[in-house]
Amino acid sequence: MRDFPGDVSCAPPARRPAVRGRPRGRLPIMDDTPYDWMYRFHLGGETAAGAGSLTVRRGRGLLARLACAALRLPRAGERLPARVTVHRRAGTQPARAAAARDAPGPAPVVETWVRHIGPHRLTTTQVRAGEHGRERHGPLELRTRTAATGAEVTVTQEQALLGAGRWSLRLPARLAPRVAARAWLDPADAALRPPRFHIEVRVTAPVAGMLLSYSGFLRREPGG
């Protein structure tokens, strides 16, 4: 399994598409390449869907097992059939941003991620504006940044806050659960049609350590 940014340095992919700079705002103008679809899957403005195979690992400690059960996370398994759909709709600009004199930032998009992994269904919702997203789990809000560079897309957690409405408290890193994800292209992916990319996701928590990780690949579904 590949490491995440911030854990251990990762060896770069053997080949990278000729994509200069970081895409911002509109989608990069490219042919229907695997990179193009991987970018649109994570940072696009329309619904996207992919199917493939994922291997799931759960933490072995008691606290990790209890947390997985309480959160109803997928069970461990090898090469489980998987389907992931990202439903997207336009969000609303916060009132303070709409009233600001400066030009508003990227329009927010509401994303509902529906993951079918084996017999399990896991659904989460986040609001994303450009690269920056907010995902709420009860009183906990995770703020992330999704960046596309070269032949990969990375999701890194920037903050974790506890609270509701206008009242929230930023959790120190040592007390905050953490989510990290990475999608990348292998050299063999370049010629495949429909296109596919590889992914790895890891969820950790203080004291309990690793709660869940899954890795594998997704291939674009028709219309996705």
What does this structure look like?
- The two termini are 27 Å apart.
- Helix content is 11%, strand content 47%.
- A 10-stranded antiparallel barrel has the order 1-2-3-4-5-6-7-9-10-11.
- The radius of gyration is 18 Å and the shape is globular.
- 26% of the residues are buried.
- It has a single domain (35-89, 106-220), classed as Lipocalin (Beta Barrel), CATH 2.40.128.
- The protein is mainly beta.
- It has 3 helices and 11 strands; from the N terminus they run αβαβαβββββββββ.
- The longest helix has 10 residues, at 34-43.
Short characterization:
With 224 residues, this protein is mainly beta.
Which key terms come to mind for this protein?
3 helices; 11 strands; ten-stranded antiparallel beta barrel; 11% helix; single chain; globular; 224 residues
